[in-house]
Structure formats: structure tokens, C-alpha cells
Amino acid sequence: MAETTTVTTVWTTDQVMALAPDSSAQRAARGLAGDRAWLETGLSANDDLPPTVWGLCQGSGTTPYQTAVDLTEPAFKCTCPSRKFPCKHALALLLRWASGSVADAVAPAWAQEWQASRAARSALATRVAERADDVPRESGTRAVPSEKAQARRADRISAGLEELDRWLTDQARAGLATVAKNGYAHWDTMTARLVDAQATGAAGILRRTSAVTGSPERLLGELARLRLLIGGYRRLGDLPEDLAASIRMRVGLPIATETVLAGPAVRDRWQVHGVRDEIEDQLTVRRAWLRGVVSGRPLLVLSFAVAGQSLPIDLLPGTEIDADVCLYPGGQPARALIAKRHAPPERIHAVAGAAGIEANLRAHAEALAGDPWLDYWPMVLDAVTPVRDGAAWLLADADGNGLPLDAAAGEPWRLVAVTAGRPATVTAEWSAGGVRPMGVWSDHRLVRL
């Protein structure tokens, strides 16, 4: 790991606010960001510490809250009783730093002890992982499924997909009009059977399909994708490895994190172009879209949280990180894990990969040809403007091309306000529902939408 220094790019207010767990935390943080509540603040000038903003904030009690933020990840500490993460004190401290109100200073003992404990835990985890890698797989000390267990799962998945194939045949025989009239119970029963068969990926596709019954064209396309997935799984041994890996992933066969991290690493300066959260089957799923400055390659970093858990907040839209990533096999765009960071995140100075609408659609078509089950695709749209088309909205370019905005995202008034009717570079997520803007380049920074 490269050594970190106290020199780090100051974040913008938008980047700080993007960390807030909800709007009430944002409002509270703004109210606390003034001078009155803070007794001391500083940005660590210690050579042996990663960049750390720290402060003492006077609360309702006699003892001030000890608040610190490691800017490298970021990571947070606060002695307040709040269950929100990060809390309003950490956000307010970052707002003060972003505004230039925090000077360099030697970190107090409590902040140094916090960082030392984090470093010790990280070192212990590394040693445990290294010892685990040295243990032979057949010793049974690692939780690796046996060949028999993997074969049993494959048999269950095959049986579940065969049942899905019969179910799809019944839907085609009944006709789309009849399928569209069926209630959610009709879909939930088949989805539950796929979950029982451990074909969780196929279950997810079927669950999302039930939400588009009002559009016969989209319904037919989703049912056809499922039928194609079944056919592909039957012929896994005859397919190219990349396509076979995509099918395994789309069906729901898990890939261990250790297996991914054991693969080759790809180093680049990875820009965070947008983050989007969705609720899927009682899980919060976060999609973070990255793009390499040198390679121009798009990446997807996924994270999950059950109710009551917080999601990782180490990837801030509008920043870039010099890092090694390891890629999951199959799928477009490649799903990745961040294996090693070489420096703290820095602010983006120019958006990588910007291109016109036609070029973005061509890239999507090429990706779709390699992975027909692709649901989302990241776009970096150069010189586009939000315009009305009747009751709908489009992102249009100077050549007259336009992409419809996803109606589920609501009215794009924030994008309209930032662009003020002028062409701008927009980072977005493209799906069958349309395009969802995630960020817009304005005043030399990426504004999160």
C-alpha cells in the first residue's frame, strides 16, 4: 500500500451531503457547521496518520463529542448516541472542512488511538486472510462447498429452470393479455419456487418482469430473456467461457469474494460517476458506477444491506481513486471489487469517457450482444440538454438525437436548474425504462442529481 499523506483534495458540499443517510441529517449538519458548536477542529498533520479531520463538538451535555473522519475511505467516529451513520456531527465537521474552516493541526490522542485501533484491526484481518490462503482446500478449514454440494445445487437449479420453462410455455399459450391480468400471487409463486431451487438470479429477473405487465412489448421481451437464459444454462458446456460465466452469474450461482480477489488486478484512476440505491426483495442494493481515466472502461461495484444496516460510503460521486480492481467473470459492464487503494480519493477535474448519444447507444448495443440479460448500462453523455417532449422529458444533443428520461425518476428539475438550458456533460444510467441522470458537470465539478 502506498503511503498516504495529509495532502488530499478538499471535497465539495455536494460530496459531503451525498454521505448523509437522509434529508434530516443534511439539515441538522448544516445547522451545526457554524463556529458556535465547535470547540476545536483540525486536519491531522501527523506523518504517521492518514488524512484525518477531527473536532470537539459541544452537545447538550457537559462533555463535548469527539468526532473524527478518516478521509481515505472515508471512515467515521463520533461519541454521540446517534444511530445514524454518519451522524450529523461528522457531516458538519466535513462541511467545515469543505468550506476551508479547518486548519492543519496535530491530531489529539483520542483521534490517534482511533486510527491505531483501525490499523491494528486491518493488520489482523490481513494476517488471518494470509493464513487462510495457506491452508490446503481439502483440510476443511475453509468454507468451500464440496463437489457433491456444488453438484446438488446445480441439479436444483436445473430442476427449477425446467419448471420455469414449463411455466413460460403456459404463459405463451394463454397469451400476453391474460398474463397481464394475473395478480402478483401468480408471479410470486413461481418466483418462490426459483428461490427454493437456489436460482436467485432468475428469480430476480422474474420478479422485475412482474412490474412491466402494463407494457406488452417489454413483457414479451423479459419473458424471452428468461427463455434464452434457460436455453443457455442447458448448453453451458458448449458456450464460450465469457458467455457461460455471464449465464452462471445471471442464474444466481455465487462467486466467492476470495476467488475474485485472487484474480489479476487492473490498475487505473477510477472515477465515480454515480451511485444509485434500490430496494430489491427487502435488500437495499447500491450500484456505484466507475470509469477508468486511462482505459475508459466502465465498472460496476455492488453493495447490499438488509433493513437497519448502513451501506458503505467509500465511493463518492465526483471523486476518483488510484486503485487496483479485480473483476468478476462474465457480465457487462464488469462487476468489480476494489482490491487496493494507492492514494486517497481526489476530486474529478474532467469527466472521462464523454461521448455523444449515438456513440453511447452503440456501446450499449455491443455490450448487449455479449450479455443479453444486461439490465443497466452507464452512459457519459456529452453536450446534452434536458428538453420537454409533450408530457415527457428527453436528453437531446445538437444533432437532434434524444434519449427519453425514465418517468419513474420524476421531473428532472434539479438537472434543468444546474444546466440552465445549456448543453452539459451528464453521467447517467440507461435501462429499458429510459435514462436516469446521476450527475452533471458544472462549474468544474460533478454535481450529484
Automatic annotation (TrEMBL):
It comes from the Bacteria. Residues 131-151 are annotated as: Disordered. InterPro entries: Znf_SWIM. Residues 131-140 have a biased composition (Basic and acidic residues). The keyword Iron-sulfur does not apply. The keyword Metal-binding applies. Keywords: Metal-binding, Zinc, Zinc-finger. This is SWIM zinc finger family protein. It comes from Dactylosporangium roseum.
